[in-house]
Fold this sequence. Notes:
- By secondary structure, this protein is α+β, with helices and mostly antiparallel strands.
- The chain has helices spanning 7-34, 88-91, 155-171, 175-186, 211-236, 243-262, 265-272, 277-280, and strands at residues 49-54, 59-67, 72-85, 102-114, 121-130, 134-143, 188-189, 194-195, 199-206.
- The chain contains eight helices and nine strands.
- Strand 2 (59-67) and strand 3 (72-85) form a beta hairpin.
- Helix 3 packs antiparallel against helix 5.
- The longest helix is centred in the N-terminal third of the chain and has 28 residues, at 7-34.
- It is globular and about 55 Å long.
Amino acid sequence: xxxxxxxxxxxxxxxxxxxxxxxxxxxxxxxxxxxxxxxxxxxxxxxxxxxxxxxxxxxxxxxxxxxxxxxxxxxxxxxxxxxxxxxxxxxxxxxxxxxxxxxxxxxxxxxxxxxxxxxxxxxxxxxxxxxxxxxxxxxxxxxxxxxxxxxxxxxxxxxxxxxxxxxxxxxxxxxxxxxxxxxxxxxxxxxxxxxxxxxxxxxxxxxxxxxxxxxxxxxxxxxxxxxxxxxxxxxxxxxxxxxxxxxxxxxxxxxxxxxxxxxxxxxxxxxxxxxxxxxxxxxxxxxxxxx
Length: 291
């Protein structure tokens, strides 16, 4: 049954969930930091540092949460809620903003760069956008750093896709094939003719006409990501790595930078709507190289 809520109530419900999910994921990653082998990961366990920011111009803001730890070389879990008006040029590309440029956007964005090359980098974001229309978007994907792991038959890839498929099948069995294909198409580097990683799911303009169903799906995508990725990290984090594997990781991170700066819609949306630059660009890995 569709929740009988006005747009403001729906926005508030979504905002509250994104902040709750942020807290749950940060706690899960800190727990992994606490359990790391001190011989492989010397030093103190990392903790998230939170920085609130306010948006210049129209309204809103958010909280940036950054962890620089021993297992996770850099992890960002950010929430934001912003509103105002799109520029006339940008409004032309946004559904429902052609004649009324006002918008409201709330969401959570996650990027995790592990120190261990055997542990894949991961990304997840979910959001609710409101113009004269309203829709959810987001998804999660996995980017293994080592070539031997960049295969759909790799156990980590299979586990991650199974988690995403399980969420989709709970709501509509047709969604997984659609959103997996969308992810494969979206997270692709045309100039290198290669995918960014092994995919996952990606969806946008998701509005089935049933807010409760769409909101439930978006919540479950986040939870499936958190649980699946945590298991993948725990299964790989005790593997030792070589200097050559670290070097391969840093080169692969360069591809990640290229995608985020050249093609990522979230980067573009954030910069063009007056978002927090430090949060937006926190997706950049802390150490990277181009050979």
